[in-house]
Amino acid sequence: MTINLTRLRWPLILGLATFLVVPDSCVRAQEIQPDSLSHGADSVLFEKKLEEELAKELYGGSDTTRSQEAIPTQPQGSPSTLGGILNPRISAIGVFMGSVTEKGAASNVYDAGLSEAELAFQAYVDPYSKADFFVAFHRERQDPFFGPEIEDGSESGYHPELEEAYLTLLTLPYGLQVKAGQFRLAFGRINTFHLHALNYVDYPRMYVNYLGGEGLADRGIGVSWLVPNPLDFYQELSLGVTSGRVESPSFGVGTNSVMFSVHLKNFFDLSDNSTLEVGFSALHGSNDPHNHKTLIGAADITYKWKPLEENLYKSFEWTTEILVSRRNSFVESVTSAAWYSFMRYQLSRRWFVAARYDYSEFPYDDTRNEQAYSLIANFFATEFQKLEVQVQHGVPSGRREFNRVLLRVVFVIGAHGAHNY
Amino acid sequence: MIGKGVFTIVLSLLGFIGPRPLPAHPEAAKKLLVVTSLQDLAAIAREIGGKYIEVFSIAKGYQDPHFVDPKPSFMVKLQRADMFIQAGLGLEIGWVPPLLDGARNPNILPGSRGYVDASKNVPLLQVPTGDPATLRARGDIHPYGNPHYWLDPLRGKIIADNIFEGLARLLPGNKETLQRNLARFKKTIDAKVARWVKMMAPYKGKSVVAFHNSWPYFEQRFGIKVVAFIEPKPGIPPTPKHLVKVIRIMKERRVKVIIISPYFSRKSAELLASKTGASVIELAPSVGAFPEIQTYTDLFDYNLSRLVKAFHGN
Ligand SMILES: [Zn+2]
Questions:
Q1: pLDDT tens sequence across A141-152
Q2: Environment class of residue A77 by beta-carbon count within 10 Å: exposed (0-12), middle (13-18) or buried (19+)?
Q3: What's the whole-number mean pLDDT along residues A182-209?
Q4: By the CB < 8 Å criterion, does A66 face chain B?
Q5: Cβ atoms of residues B20 and A227 within 8 Å
Q6: Which residues, listed in sequence order, are joined to residue B159 by a DSSP beta bridge?
Q7: Å from A158 to nearest chain B CA?
Q8: Which of A35, A120, A359, B276 gives a 20 to 30 Å CA spacing to B109?
Q9: Which residues of A touch B140 (CB under 8 A)?
Q10: Is the confidence metric ipTM above 0.95 for this complex?
């Protein structure tokens, strides 16, 4: 394990910078030239005082450091062309992560690094379809404090990986849509989300232990159907038939049979301000070359509250997912379970606080389990940059309990990514 | 390839949950379902389409149109829509694309008969110049020019032209009625604008401060001047240092009116008011922002009478 304080310096600096870089520059430069205003030493002093006073009123503290000018002013030049007309929407996402772990009586353990750089390309192919490509460079690293004990220095550098590359047919009749290629499987509430889009730093243990550290993606075909129903609510049934050769704790790379995935998503508007989503999922595939099968069933529920009129400032969200797995092998069949619950409350336009509890057994062992308790704070500088701090108490199986602080900075450049609900 | 017959059988077997009528055929006697991103577009569509259409707006007038949640329930609405109208210019970029993708309705995708971009032919203000890679440094949400163009009633006539064109495509048999409705709408606007401009004439050049940069078209039409914004840049929340600058400008320019929209926090505006003696008024950024604003002309009647009252009070 790297114990290197200079590497830790950067997360802290970056973290601080996120708080300081609250861009501030002028109003309409053409109309008001600040330089042209009378501006003596007295008024400078007066304004400094005023600024402190305003800070107190706005934030309830006297922190005026947030208003450092940090973003370059507008350069003059030729009209913007907004990129080549036929280029796809391109965006690049950086994920920087740092952690400090207090591990029993041992000394603190630090880690920091760019954990992921992702490139996304998205465009309509023709009037009938759309294509999405996501290429990621991951820093491959197993969580050293959960799961089986691993050797120090398990880090194996950055690996380019095709996260997703798929075509979506958009103009099929009867409310159908077809996906073909490599894609994240429709399973549970969060498997289709990319990790950096989630509002906690580490993936829930349920997902790590059953689907894999980055969730489950596979090559194949997915069909989804918007199910007509008399109550007129949103009901989507997704079916996937994929290769089954995935790196996952529940399924095997060397298998020779396809994997089936099913997800039924139900979405209800309880009022203008609150919604409820209830989902049911299943996965079925082989876990070894001898065609021993694993069957996973899961359910998820999400409640969201967000008053329309104040949707910039207030919201609340609660998600719980539960999973039951049955894994057959030569020796036995193991039935095990896992669940987590997550709750998040918005304090102000930019600040959110959240808590999560994880419980997870293992696909191959229902007698052992691990648990984690997390408190999370998210700070959104803008839609394109967020900072997250997570304090976690971990109770791994058969190993020492630990406390740690995880830090993550996510930043995006390029095309505006739409957010999923 | 699965034959269409087999396909239909499989679907009807699965359809035990209950059938739902397919979207109304354009020529049928049934009303067309027109879904709009904003209530302003819905209000104008209602004027043109009259009894031939039923209108639903995704965003409510009291919601910030930049930040609307793409709830799946809107996809169900869009799946059945015969027409979709949006403001364009990146205003809805965070929420309309996922809704259109999820709606599985080929008739309303960009480029198809049932799709209308209301910004077509609208003369734009504040189109950014310079290196595109610095756009976000200037605030993130007006990349193609200021998208709040419905706040100028004369540009509202161009919106009406675009909606008329779309409706006439789907209702060729009723083109004459639509044409009449369009002409009547334009005439009303012209008459109203003459009155509104006259009403605002005494306040020409009056300075105000606004929360977000959503008023340039309104300023251009009615002669008021927004000299500073509470947001340092579009989409960026206010900071004390920036507010100090705004206070300085307000004192220099003797600004007595601060305008805000119902979806922004009043806190910073009230802070400014307390430091400068100005008054804070809530103007409607869209139709539906307040219950009394039901039509497109209500929007201006409301806003202008509020402004006149505020200027008068000082
Ligand atoms: Zn705007």
A1: 677 778 766 555
A2: exposed
A3: 94
A4: yes
A5: no
A6: none
A7: 27
A8: A120
A9: 382-384, 416
A10: no
Q: Using CA coordinates, name the residue in chain B closest to A71.
A: B137
And the tokens for A22?
A: 């609250």
> Which pLDDT value is given to residue B306?
95
Please state, in angstroms and rounded to a whole number, the distance separating the CA atoms of residues B146 and B148.
6
Inter-chain CB proximity A27 and B246 less than 8 Å: yes
Q: Give residues with Cβ within 8 angstroms of A77, minimum separation 6.
A: B129, B130, B131
- Residue B151 CA to ligand 1 center (angstroms) comes to 12
Other Cβ atoms closer than 10 A to A260: 17
Burial label, A156 (beta-carbon count in 10 A; 0-12, 13-18, 19+): exposed
Q: Looking at residue A79, what DSSP letter applies?
A: B
Number of domains making up chain A: 1
Sorting pLDDT into bands at 50, 70 and 90, what band is A171? confident
- Whether residue A158 is contained in a domain is answered as yes
- Are residues B61 and B287 in contact, defined by beta-carbon separation less than 8 angstroms? yes
DSSP string, A49-60: HHHHHHHHHHHS
**Is the pLDDT score of B154 beyond 90?**
yes
For chain B, give every domain's residue range. Answer: 26-191, 196-313
Is residue A274 within a helix (H) or strand (E), and if so which, with residue range?
Answer: strand A274-286
Q: Which residues contact A404 (CB under 8 A, 6 or more apart)?
A: A99, A100, A101, A102, A145, A391, A392, A394
Domain for residue A138, yes or no?
Answer: yes
Q: How far is A252 from chain B (nearest CA, A)?
A: 31
Partners of A227 on chain B (C-beta within 8 Å) are 17
Mean per-residue pLDDT over chain A, rounded: 81
Number of A/B CB contacts below 8 angstroms equals 211
User: Which residue segment(s) compose the domain that A104 sits in?
Assistant: 88-414
- On whether the CB atoms of residues A326 and A364 are closer than 8 A, the answer is no
Q: How far is B180 from chain A (nearest CA, A)?
A: 34
* Residue-level pLDDT at A113: 84
- pLDDT for res A119: 92
**Is the distance from CB of B88 to CB of A411 less than 8 angstroms?**
no
Q: Are A183 and A164 in contact (CB under 8 A)?
A: yes
Please report, for the domain that includes residue A365, its CATH number. Answer: 2.40.160.10
Ramachandran assignment for B233, one of left (phi > 0), alpha (psi -120 to 50 degrees), beta (any other): beta
Ligand 1 midpoint to CA B213 (Å)? 6
Backbone angles phi, psi at A197, to 5 degrees: -85, -15
Q: What would the CATH number be for the domain defined by B196-313?
A: 3.40.50.1980
List CB contacts (< 8 A) between A170 and chain B: 101, 104, 106, 109
Q: Token pair for residue B241? A: 């240092």
* Nearest one of A88, A67, A55 to A25, comparing CA atoms: A67
Least CB–CB distance from B137: residue in A72, A230, A275: A72
Query: What's residue A415's pLDDT?
Result: 75
What kind and span of H or E run contains B258?
strand B257-260
Say if A331 falls within a structural domain.
Answer: yes
Amino acid identity of A84?
G
What CATH class is the domain B26-191? alpha beta
Residue A24, min C-alpha distance to chain B (Å): 5
pLDDT digits (tens, 9 = 90+) for A288-339: 888 899 999 999 999 999 999 888 899 999 999 999 999 998 888 999 999 9
Identify whether the C-beta of residue A115 lies closer than 8 Å to the C-beta of residue A138: yes
Query: H or E stretch including B264?
Result: none
User: How far is A217 from A185, CA to CA, in rounded Å?
Assistant: 6
- A230 vs B: CB within 8 A: yes
CATH topology identical between B26-191 and B196-313: yes
Q: Is residue A182 part of a domain?
A: yes
> Which residues of B are less than 8 Å from A265 in CB distance?
72
B301, B289 in Cβ contact below 8 A? no
Which tokens in the block code for residue A287?
């876990």
pLDDT the model gives residue B15: 39
- Interchain contact, B140 vs A384, CB within 8 Å: yes
